[in-house]
Amino acid sequence: MADVVQYRLERMVNELDDLERRGLFSRREIAEIVKQRRKFEYRLKRPSPLKQDYLAYVEYEKQVDSLRRLRKKSIAREAKKKMKKSVSDFAGVSRILDIYQLAVMRYKGDIDLWFRYLEFCRERRNGRMKKVLAQVVRFHPKVPGVWIYAAAWEFDHNLNVMAARALMQSGLRVCPTSEDLWVEYLRMELTYLNKLKARKVALGEDEGTLINDHRNANEEQWKEENKDLFMSLDEERESRDVSNGLNAESKKKSDMFQEQSLIILRTIYSGAVEAIPSSFSLRTQFFEILETINLAGSKEMQKEILSGIKRDFSVEPEYWDWLARLETIDPESTQETSTDIMPSRLQKAVQVYEEALKFLPSPVMFNLYTKFLMDAIVSGEKTQNSEPFNDFEPTGGSLSHLLMVYEKAENMGCLTEELACQHVSLYLQLGKLDEARKLAEKFCSGKFSGTVHLWHLRVSVEMKYITRKCPSPSRADLLSVFELLRSILTKVAISEAEGLWLMALKFFSNHKQFFDKLVDISLVSLAKDGGSENGFCLSSAIVNFVLQKDGIQCARHMYKRFLALPRPGLAVYKNCIELELNLAAIGDEECLTNVRKLFESALTTFDQNVNLWRDYYLMEIKMGTSETAAAVQWRARKKLKDAAASLICPA
Length: 651
Description:
The protein is mostly helical. Helix content is 75%, strand content 0%. It contains 31 helices and no strands. The chain has helices at 2-10, 13-21, 27-44, 51-79, 87-106, 111-124, 129-139, 144-156, 161-174, 179-202, 214-225, 234-275, 280-291, 298-313, 317-327, 343-359, 363-383, 396-411, 417-429, 433-444, 452-469, 475-489, 498-507, 512-529, 538-550, 552-563, 570-584, 589-605, 610-623, 626-640, 642-648. Mean pLDDT is 83; it is low at 334-339 and 388-395.
């Protein structure tokens, strides 16, 4: 291995001598470069070199080459003459390419590494691109991105349309079910057709482009309607008559070109549909691409695509959602126009959704319908430069219709938990607290009686309702909220009702009687479900509330109650230990004693927990004595066996 490394270093002598002779690096810097390269070369000659070793070597060589180029420019600027190229100008790039080649041969299946290699070849334009592309296509023929990259390089860099088309067609034969390949193939053909169109325009054989430009069309229409406003010279009139014959001939050629272009597009579309008949997104992408081009017969092709989509996907809610949103798009709009939806177009989209509900009544369809209406309302409010729902007169029709859709979903039996929450939240956003309160009560007493999210929403509405009436709620109001919480907290598991518990503890934190009742309910629930080792820990949350409100003594009394329960859980032990450690850090000896007691109590149940033993040992190292730390280490070795404990508790 050393001989191979030395041989590779000796091959760098000419380059290093050139760098020193030209004054780009000093002898000391060259020695450091040799040292770093020797280190990287030894890494690559290991029995199993890592991918990161290759990438680190490449990154180092890139930095060295970048510094060389900067110093070369600086010296040339000072000498006021251009420096000739020498061996050092090519050696750095050649070495990086060799490292990449070694890396991809070692990790042939790493497609990311291959693309890094390709990008470097493309940036430096060293002539190895075609060879690398051939290799990556041979090793990864099933990756569509490889074919797209290769075709794009032939099309954009080499300007070889035939080679790019051949690569795309080979990729489609190997990966016929790739949507990206079909879409990119269509885009490539359209780009090529647009270039041919631009060439004809430059030669005077045609006018316009394949890209739809509605602004130009509108200007031409306005000029035609107001041609009497323009005064033309007699010469212009005569020349117009002479050019009519030429225009007829060029129009014939243009029509032939557009007809051939349309045939190409139809062929690609039919091949894509035949290869992937079940892909809805592929057809929608083809349709959207066709909308952006200006070809004779493209409208008929769009209608054909629409009819095919309706025939094959009319039972899919996504089809109706896409069709409705398509109605809101103005074909004559540009990127500079605003994103608001015209009322007439919004009405057409609503009609599509209503037709969909007759044909396909389902919760998914209602969810898509309501989401569309919410998007329309928000975009309308942004256009009005106001906050959504603050003043809903401009979008009152949409809001009232949205409420009707929620009611319709309920009447048709398609109301889900998500839609019910959206319905209540909409009333809250509109400031209609009474309606939201009644609706939440109806849902929670009906089919959604066990739904935690709706109960969370209902309780929050009740809290807003009683605090709106009076900043200091009466005992009757507090009791009504508490009874609501009791009815749901005793039914569901603690892990599912985390938000409800935290909201209840925060709301009743200053009302001792109700807070104590909540603690009693939590004790019963924890005794039934057991404590948590990960995630939400109710007992820890209650202890923290008590600590902030009543101090450490009450917090200790509270956590002792929880630790007395069966299966208290490791999370509450860790929380109590952290609480006592924070106080022990300021010199409280009683807290240090309590920490040891908590560790010992936890280890009686979790004596095989490696992290718990490690924390105990580190605590003794930091706050105890060497004797107590050694004792904990000895016990850990005994419980966990020597091999495991030696890694956890080093001597």
